[in-house]
Amino acid sequence: MKPTVGQTLPTRTIESVNAEKMKLLSALMRDPNPIHFDVASVEALGMGSRTVNQGPSNMAYVLSMLGEWAGGTDRITHYRFRFLGNVFAGERLEASGTVTSVEDVDDGLAVQCALSLTVVGGHEVLTGTGTVRLGKV
Questions:
Q1: Domain, as residue range, for 54
Q2: β-strand partners of 12
Q3: Based on the structure, what is the number of domains in the chain?
């Protein structure tokens, strides 16, 4: 089935952002910002009492959703995001998207999508676009 403009992508729900995984990712990325692993630092900044998820993790939630719909993350040819807010440990998230254009290209279809990451019951924390390349339908 050929994607159509306005088509909604299947959402991906992240049941709970894991604080321990944030800590591990900080070490792997050599990210010294203590808001990702030290609650006292978050509190000192007046941001509450839960650690803050890394931006690349938030993007990965959305890109995983897009790749799953497209048949693999290797089909993602371009993406661009704007960060709108923080994601805190324990929050439940929903990654979503909508097809905004479908273009015939030599080796298939170039499908552009509007993308979003939202705290369930809260606000949008990430918005952007992504393009995937699909085989001829």
A1: 7-135
A2: 95
A3: 1
